């Protein structure tokens, strides 16, 4: 296919994202004051708790079966590669530049997690609808592409809230501990020392003291047994706390799991999916709610990017490092990994599937990074600047890489 046609095909979805993002930015301006901070919070809550789970659940229920899930087994591994390679490159960049401690968690998170959620959900259907699309019939391309994109979103949500979340939390806690001044031991220690200095005279031992001592010994033995039991249970309690099941089972992740169960288990799929399904109204309702997810998320991206126009002390070198990692180094690694998997025959021969796998390496940082930084109160303004700069750069880099990827898989 002509390279120019591939370029225009790759450019159209990026332009659509930019137009809707620009609309969100204008709506957030004080002159219009529609997507102000309160409205953004409410809309973000709807997207997080309602629209995204409904979208992912409905698409996965309709398109994913056990057979197709086996065929795309490489995608979870591929997404894991994007996270681990991005983290390694980000850590290497931090060691070279010696970035300030308050920026390290943000930089690592942005290098590790790509926008594998709403960006593929926008780009892939738009590519399928183009007349010059190299991926065949529009309906077939759209159905398979949305399944791939939804599965990508489901997998990335799990990795973000189990892997990246703990990276940013660890660095945020490290900063907090360094800046924290703890003088709590001065009072008790001084009191103990004074008590020791003022203590004089031998103690008088009575029969009652012996009885109390025996009781204390018995109690000490029982406490020792409890302590041993607690020592056995302590690692398990720490594991549960580290996993943070509330975060792990976030609404988008729960929607993904529910959609996979309905799609993979044939009796459930017959109950909810299809024209003759007895509970098809449930799936239709979820699909209607999910249709609002993509425009709402894209408008929020534009509204949140407005914060990035504020001044910050973030060094330009950190921004350049994130851009180099996400838009140069990671796509090169992606080409090597995916092409190696294709040549070795471990993934099935589907150009659209190959394109999605490659696209996962060239996306801007995940929007969830902004949510996590707000949660820990670390680098919120700097995160907005990163999102602004990386999304502007993505308009050019994503178009070029998409063109190259389409040429590569054909």
From TrEMBL:
Lineage: superkingdom: Eukaryota
GO cellular component: endoplasmic reticulum membrane
Listed GO biological process terms: auxin-activated signaling pathway; endoplasmic reticulum to cytosol auxin transport
Compartment annotation: Endoplasmic reticulum membrane
InterPro entries, alphabetized: Mem_transp_PIN-like, Na+/solute_symporter_sf, PILS1/3/4/5/7
Main localization (coarse): endoplasmic reticulum
Membrane topology category: Multi-pass membrane protein
Transmembrane portions of the chain: 6-30, 42-61, 73-94, 106-127, 147-168, 243-265, 285-306, 318-338, 358-378, 385-409
Alphabetized UniProt keyword annotations: Auxin signaling pathway, Endoplasmic reticulum, Membrane, Transmembrane, Transmembrane helix, Transport
Assigned protein family: Belongs to the auxin efflux carrier (TC 2.A.69.2) family.
Protein role: Involved in cellular auxin homeostasis by regulating auxin metabolism. Regulates intracellular auxin accumulation at the endoplasmic reticulum and thus auxin availability for nuclear auxin signaling.
PANTHER family assigned: AUXIN EFFLUX CARRIER FAMILY PROTEIN, PTHR31651
Designated name of the protein: Protein PIN-LIKES 3
């Amino acid at each position: 296919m002509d390279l120019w046609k591939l370029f225009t095909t790759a450019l159209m979805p990026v332009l659509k994202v930019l137009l809707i993002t620009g609309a969100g930015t204008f709506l957030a301006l004080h002159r219009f004051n529609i997507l102000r901070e309160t409205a953004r919070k409410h809309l973000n809550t709807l997207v997080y708790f309602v629209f995204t789970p409904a979208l992912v659940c409905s698409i996965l229920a309709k398109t994913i079966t056990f057979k197709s899930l086996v065929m795309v087994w490489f995608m979870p591994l591929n997404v894991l590669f994007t996270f681990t390679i991005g983290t390694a490159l980000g850590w290497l960049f931090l060691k070279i530049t010696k970035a300030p401690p308050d920026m390290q968690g943000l930089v690592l998170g942005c290098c590790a997690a790509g926008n594998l959620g709403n960006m593929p959900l926008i780009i892939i259907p738009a590519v399928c609808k183009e007349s010059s699309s190299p991926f065949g019939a529009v309906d077939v391309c759209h159905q398979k592409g949305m399944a791939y994109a939804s599965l990508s979103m489901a997998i990335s949500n799990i990795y973000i809230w189990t892997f990246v979340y703990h990276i940013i939390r660890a660095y945020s806690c490290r900063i907090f501990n360094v800046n924290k001044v703890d003088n709590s031991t001065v009072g008790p220690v001084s009191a103990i020392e004074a008590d020791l200095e003022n203590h004089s005279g031998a103690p008088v031992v009575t029969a009652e003291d012996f009885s109390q001592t025996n009781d204390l010994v018995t109690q000490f033995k029982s406490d020792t047994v409890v302590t041993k039991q607690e020592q056995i249970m302590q690692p398990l309690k720490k594991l549960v706390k580290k996993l943070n099941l509330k975060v792990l089972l976030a609404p988008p992740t729960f929607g993904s799991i529910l959609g996979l169960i309905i799609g993979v288990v044939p009796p459930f799929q017959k109950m909810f999916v299809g024209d003759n399904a007895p509970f098809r109204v449930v799936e239709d309702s979820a699909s209607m709610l999910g249709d609002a997810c993509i425009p709402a998320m894209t408008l929020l991206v534009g509204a949140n990017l407005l914060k990035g126009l504020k001044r910050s002390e973030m060094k330009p070198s950190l921004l350049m490092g994130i851009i180099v990692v996400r838009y140069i180094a990671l796509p090169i690694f992606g080409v090597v990994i995916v092409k190696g998997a294709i040549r070795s025959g471990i993934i099935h021969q589907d150009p659209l599937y190959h394109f999605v796998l490659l696209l996962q390496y060239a996306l801007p940082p995940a929007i969830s990074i902004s949510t996590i930084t707000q949660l820990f109160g670390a680098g919120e303004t700097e995160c907005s600047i990163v999102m602004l700069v990386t999304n502007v750069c993505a308009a050019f880099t994503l178009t070029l890489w998409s063109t190259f990827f389409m040429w590569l898989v054909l």
